[in-house]
TrEMBL record:
Gene3D superfamilies, sorted: 3.30.70.2450, 3.40.30.120, FAD/NAD(P)-binding domain
FAD-binding domain sequence ranges: 3-338
Species: Streptomyces collinus (strain DSM 40733 / Tue 365)
Protein name, entry field: FAD-binding domain-containing protein
One matching Pfam family: FAD_binding_3
Keyword tags: FAD, Flavoprotein
InterPro entries: FAD-bd, FAD/NAD-bd_sf, RIFMO-like
Amino acid sequence: MRDVLIVGAGPTGLALGVDLARRGVDALVVERAAELFPGSRGKGIQPRTQEVFDDLGVLDALRAAGGPYPVRMVWKDGERVGEQPMFDPVPADEGAPYTEPLLVPQWRTQEILHARLVELGGRVAFGREVTALEQDPEGVEVRFADGTAVRARYVVAADGGRSVVRRAVGVGMTGESVDPSPFVVADVRVRGLDREHWHAFPGADGTGLMLCPLAGTEEFQLAGKLPEGTEPEPTLDGVRRLVAAYTHLDADDVTELRWASDFRPRAALADRFRVGRVLLAGDAAHVHSPAGGQGLNTSVQDAYNLGWKLGAVLRDGASGALLDTYEEERRPNAAAVLGLSTGVHRGQVRRGAATVQLALGYPESSLSEERRAAPAGVRAGGRAPDGVVAGVRLFDAFRGPHWTLLGATTTAPGVRSLPAAPASYGPGLFLIRPDGYVGWAGDTETGLDAYLTRVGLR
């Protein structure tokens, strides 16, 4: 029996696979398709996700493959009429070294995560379509279209907004339409546009077309909002007609179509994130408008939150009840980000400080223990900022599947100690979770051992 079966080899499933592989958890990723997703859809990697990818060992490869967001160039009647930044700048400091989104096509992000998974000894089984599952107190049996089955202690549904696993366990989704207009997104090669700008061609009726150069490729991502009632055509001829209708380019300036899809933006949240030994993550748990680049990033955060908890239960002896904190922490977080994505889509929220995800945390979580009499600076449940202690960069100290204790020493296995916390944290002792949030903070070590026991470290 496997420890974990992850259904879906998108960014969520692959990130979780990487995290579990480095923890020595026997996890298998299965994917219905014969290969990784070929499109650019989720192309924005927010600063908080860059911190996650730094920890997972893939940030350097992503930086080499991607680039910064280009400035938007607005066109009208074949003339350039002005430039607009895509987001408000967020100043970097010692605690937050990454403050600008990174633009990487989703297919390339998945290739890099897959390569890291294989490097760590994990793998993806392609062409494995889930048709049914059945769970009991000891595990879950998952059956596939080819007649085979796999049994695992836990199953994670990372199989997208139309999740077969979510439906199999009877979990509904509650949501709303964000925009009644149909949208087309495609990866294309186009002649006649520079690659230094994100080219915007607004229509007079609120519709329009945008062409964003994809770093590391010769392609642009095309995103088009069409009039209500229009039937999208995600084909080469259909895309050529859109380009000819909305821009000064000719139809034959679109020389190649790599991938295309159509959709109507909606926001939806799963009613539950856990049913027994089945857990939902990524688009299987929440579906976003693509505006603001929140969907992929929120999904990776799901995986990062769940990975250490599965590891603690399966390898460190923590109680299975620890997994209840996954829904406790991630569902409210996803609900908040859904509202944010919808606000960006409707022009109510600006891209910038609100969308970089550095302020997200779990202050209300049952895993967040703030025991200081007069807490200042960083609080339990908050993101643990970067900094330097005794010549050691904190993000270097945090990197890996362990916990980190700042301000004291401990003999607990799986915990690295540093003699102090940076001044920006405020006075006290701080226990940093493997996913980079403060789990416990105190004036003294009183209560620390009890917390370590609760999370399987004693």
